[in-house]
Amino acid sequence: MTPLLRRLRCDERGSVATELTLLAPVLIVLLLFVVFCGRLADSRLRVDDAAHQAVRAATLARSHSQASSDAHATAHAALAQAGVRCQNLGVSAHLAGLQPGSTVTVTLTCDIELSDLAMLGIPGSTTAESTASSVVDQWRGTDPAGT
Question: What secondary structure does DSSP assign to 56-81, as a single string?
Fold first, then answer.
């Protein structure tokens, strides 16, 4: 074997650049996946927060119809302010008489499109559901009309 051939065969210059070139796409996809998981968790936390805000708004209302509409409006506003876009937003308020001392429960269901959460172009959607409960103030007044 000639010395030139032996030297070229043992030469490792450029191998790091080649390895980095081959690994860069994998590292980028891994980074985008981590960002996707973080944004998905953040969206679920924001849905939880919107459910808590909605149930608090419902407990402050004086009538059943006002409590339901306040819960829906508050959930919609909280999610819009947080930057969460729901394909379908479901707000279900269980008012339990809306009497002082009773417990009000609001269940929020939000279908979140996955392509909004990362640059990966992931198709489909996921559903984030949260339930929050709050007690109606024991010492507050009630609706005089009783509705």
Answer: HHHHH-SSHHHHHHHHHHHHHHHHHH
- Give pLDDT tens digits for 2-56: 776 666 566 666 677 777 888 889 998 888 888 888 888 999 999 999 999 999 9
Q: For tokens 């609001």, what's the residue?
A: 106
Tens of pLDDT, residues 80-137: 999 998 999 999 999 988 888 899 999 999 998 887 666 667 788 889 999 999 999 8
What Rg do the C-alpha atoms of the chain give, in angstroms? 27
Q: Which domains does the chain have, with CATH numbers?
A: 16-135 (3.30.1300)
Query: Which residue in 43, 52, 39, 60 sits closest to 108, CA to CA?
Result: 52
d(CA 72, CA 91): 6
Q: What are the Cα distances from residue 58, in Å, to 16, 49, 62, 68, 80? A: 61, 14, 9, 7, 19
